[in-house]
Model the fold of this input.
Amino acid sequence: WGEAVDPVCGMTVEISHAAAMSVYQGKFIYFCNVSCKEKFDGAPEKFLRGEERVESEKGLNQSPSATTQN
Done:
């Protein structure tokens, strides 16, 4: 069966023991628990694109550029 990475929490999940599963754009997505599935189902693109990480990095990058301009 193999393994998959839960896109919400990043946990490695054994596919045969996954607590939940969704199908998104024809792909099976596996989750460590139902709460991760519910979060994913509410905003799948957020988790597949990693927007949370990107937004955090943008915030970190803005501070140094602001001090550079002063």
About this structure: Strands lie at 3-5, 12-14, 20-24, 27-31. The chain is about 50% helix and 25% strand. The CA atoms of residues 64 and 70 lie 10 Å apart.
